[in-house]
User: Which sequence fits this backbone?
């Protein structure tokens, strides 16, 4: 058996790779996931060949994120597939391990995977972060205060592309998207633009589904812009689509939207960020978050806090105080947090280092949103 790779796909192998993806997922993801499948990303479409045949493929999208003014790189993993005739031989593990090394070389600090299967768990990926999910029923609509009139209009490239990109720039936690990314993503997803007097003031990704009983439900994906406009648009969604229920998720840092919904009388369910994640480069991540850390514990303490590796474990040190984190799974839970605050049980309990770690962690982090692959 001759094994070639893991490596990036070559242009002449591109169609064969897409055929494997189509076979496994029973869908033409080449058109539906433009952040992966585009000419500029070909080196990040990783494959493994056996006897000249592509048998495993994993796609990677490397993008910058902006988190409360801190910028770092995220590697988003998707389209993980192995031909049915070649499974249970460790090929996907080989490719994903190669990707982890590649991400570290390219300065990526966090890997985000659209799934939670054993393959990802074994390599230290875990469901982490925190997201507040508000489920709004038809009976709740009467509780919504009259704010101001808005209208919902379908996205049109010529009218709305640059407006949506501009609105998104105002979000404090977001992917750093160039205009061409917006253009590609918005060509394959359903987005409604929220307008006030004809002027776009927000947008939302609208996912409508009808269940077996005929009831219509909506999941609002990524949104940005005026929170008052978003709340005002909720009634329109119920009216326009005859909804039974609407699900709206937000980050804990979105205090304005959370306070409005809680004032209405809604209580959120606490979920994770949707993808499993792993820290790829802890020292670089801590360096990128240095402005955030300074605001939490002072510049002096931020400069004194050191991180590194020691005998396969992750070291945090402040002066003479040291704390070791056992493995990748524990590390990502501590750094990015969990819905049940498991990070508190991982951190040390006494001393100055313990107080500092509990002050800076968990880091706020981005929800994949329209960048999910």
Assistant:
């Amino acid at each position: 058996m001759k094994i070639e790779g893991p490596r990036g796909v070559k242009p002449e192998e591109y169609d064969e790779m897409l055929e494997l993806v189509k076979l496994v997922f029973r869908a033409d993801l080449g058109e539906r996931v433009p952040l992966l499948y585009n000419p500029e990303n070909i080196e990040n479409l990783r494959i493994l060949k056996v006897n000249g045949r592509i048998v495993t493929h994993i796609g990677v999208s490397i993008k910058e994120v902006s988190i409360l003014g801190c910028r770092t790189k995220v590697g988003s993993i998707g389209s993980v597939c192995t031909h049915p005739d070649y499974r249970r031989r460790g090929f996907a593990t080989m490719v994903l391990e190669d990707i982890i090394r590649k991400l570290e070389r390219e300065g990526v600090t966090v890997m985000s995977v659209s799934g939670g299967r054993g393959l990802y768990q074994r390599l230290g990926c875990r469901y982490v972060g925190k997201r507040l999910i508000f489920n709004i029923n038809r009976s709740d609509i009467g509780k919504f205060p009259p704010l101001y009139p808005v209208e919902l209009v379908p996205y049109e490239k010529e009218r709305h592309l640059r407006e949506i990109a501009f609105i998104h720039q105002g979000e404090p936690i977001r992917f750093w998207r160039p205009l061409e990314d917006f253009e590609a993503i918005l060509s394959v997803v359903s987005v409604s633009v929220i307008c006030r007097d004809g002027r776009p003031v927000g947008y939302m990704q609208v996912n409508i589904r009808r269940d077996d009983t005929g009831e219509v439900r909506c999941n609002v994906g990524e949104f940005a812009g005026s929170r008052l406009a978003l709340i005002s648009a909720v009634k329109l969604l119920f009216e326009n689509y005859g909804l039974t229920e609407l699900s709206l998720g937000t980050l804990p840092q979105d205090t304005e939207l959370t306070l409005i919904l809680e004032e209405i009388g809604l209580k959120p369910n606490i979920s994770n960020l949707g993808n499993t994640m792993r820290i790829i480069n802890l020292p670089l991540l801590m360096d990128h978050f240095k402005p955030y850390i300074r605001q939490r514990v002072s510049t002096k303490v931020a400069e004194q806090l050191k991180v590194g590796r020691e005998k396969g474990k992750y070291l945090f040190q402040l002066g003479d105080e040291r704390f070791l984190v056992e493995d990748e799974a524990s590390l990502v839970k501590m750094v990015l947090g969990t819905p049940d605050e498991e990070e508190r049980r991982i951190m040390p309990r006494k001393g100055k280092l313990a107080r500092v770690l509990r002050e800076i962690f968990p880091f706020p982090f981005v929800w994949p949103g329209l960048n999910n692959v």
The chain is about 35% helix and 30% strand.
